[in-house]
């Protein structure tokens, strides 16, 4: 269950207290199957286990794991438009008349109602957890839109959930550029083997993406001397977690290294117990990393009103 990407939000201590009712609140917003004429449904699914009896939250100490699920009907616009075109052409040939805009719109609505019940359904889920002690909402996605959609689902379930995007006091792009150019990385942080450098002067400026690259090489230094800045940087924290940090403070390609995963016991009695152990280990490791991100970039926790 280890997350691969992290989009982060913060919330205040008062909001953390309100999250004690999370399990009860989510119960009324459980994912239901798509109806015959619905394009999609959203709701919460059990993070561990399946079925109506499975809990919608899973807590280990001060961290609570939730999972936002969805069902989407697969009905490509090209399929609908092709079938609509054939029907319009048939009317023109058999009745000798053109189909007007209003009639075409009605025909398209009828066609959707006809095709939707037979469309395939694609299921999806996104894991997330809340750290009530430190005020973090952590979502397993690098997409801001997907993260906002999941946050909307939580707000609808709770009635209110004022989690806010990160507001760094230190500019991530400037700070990461300094780390790479001058080797001034904080203690415990080392360079990985991936970087994205851009000319910040314009949206059409030159971009250099390097992977499996020595980031201390002369090639990288030349890009920096030419004025490029770091937009994404591969990093390793305490030789335990590797990730690519973006200037948007999204962590991508997150991976717990072998020294961490080797700490997992091999004697879990079942799959649920193994997931529980993995979640406990994962949140413990992230607690240390997120604390350092807060320190490095100045990421204040919102205060209570």
Describe the model.
May be involved in recombination. This is Recombination-associated protein RdgC. Keywords: Cytoplasm, DNA recombination. There is one protein chain. This protein has 3 domains: about 110 residues, no CATH class; about 40 residues; about 130 residues, no CATH class. The protein starts with 6 loop residues before the first strand and ends in an 8-residue tail after the last helix. Strands 1, 2, 3, 4, 5, 6 and 7 form a 7-stranded antiparallel beta sheet that branches. A 5-stranded antiparallel beta sheet has the order 9-8-10-11-12. With about 300 residues, it is α+β, with helices and mostly antiparallel strands. The chain has 9 helices and 12 strands.
Keywords:
9 helices; 7-stranded antiparallel β-sheet; 5-stranded antiparallel β-sheet; 3 domains; 305 residues; alpha+beta; 26% strand; single chain
Largest sheet: 7 strands, antiparallel
Helical content, roughly? 25-40%
Determine Rg (CA atoms, Å): 24 Å
- Average pLDDT: 91
Number of domains: 3
Beta fraction: 25-35%
Instruction: Give the overall shape.
Output: globular
Low-confidence stretches: none
One letter per element, helices H and strands E, the order comes to EHHEEEHHEEHEHEEHEEEHH
Total number of strands: 12
Q: Give the number of helices.
A: 9
How many angstroms does the end-to-end distance come to? 35 Å
């Amino acid at each position: 269950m280890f997350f691969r990407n992290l989009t982060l939000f913060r919330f205040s201590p008062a909001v953390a207290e309100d999250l004690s009712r999370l399990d009860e609140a989510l119960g009324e917003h459980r994912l239901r199957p798509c109806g015959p004429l619905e394009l999609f449904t959203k709701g919460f699914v059990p993070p561990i286990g399946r079925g109506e009896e499975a809990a919608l939250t899973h807590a280990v100490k001060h961290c609570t794991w939730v999972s936002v699920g969805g069902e989407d009907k697969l009905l490509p616009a090209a399929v609908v438009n092709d079938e609509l075109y054939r029907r319009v052409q048939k009317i023109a040939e058999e009745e000798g008349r053109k189909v007007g805009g209003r009639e075409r719109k009605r025909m398209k609505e009828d066609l959707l109602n006809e095709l939707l019940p037979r469309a395939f359904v694609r299921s999806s889920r996104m894991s997330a957890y809340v750290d009530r002690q430190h005020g973090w909402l952590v979502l397993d996605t690098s997409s801001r839109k997907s993260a906002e959609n999941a946050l909307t689902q939580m707000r609808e379930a709770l009635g209110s959930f004022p989690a806010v995007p990160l507001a760094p006091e230190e500019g991530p792009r400037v700070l990461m550029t300094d780390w790479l150019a001058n080797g001034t990385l904080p203690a415990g942080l080392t360079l990985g083997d991936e970087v994205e450098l851009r000319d910040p002067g314009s949206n059409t400026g030159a971009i250099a993406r390097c992977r499996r690259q020595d980031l201390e090489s002369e090639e990288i230094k030349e890009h920096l001397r030419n004025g490029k800045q770091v937009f994404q940087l591969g990093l390793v924290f305490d030789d335990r977690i590797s990730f690519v940090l973006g200037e948007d403070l999204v962590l991508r390609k997150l991976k717990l290294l072998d020294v961490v995963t080797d700490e997992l016991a091999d004697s879990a009695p079942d799959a649920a117990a193994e997931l529980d152990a993995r979640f406990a280990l994962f949140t413990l490791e992230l607690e240390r990393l997120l604390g350092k991100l807060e320190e490095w970039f100045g990421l204040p926790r919102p205060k209570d009103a």
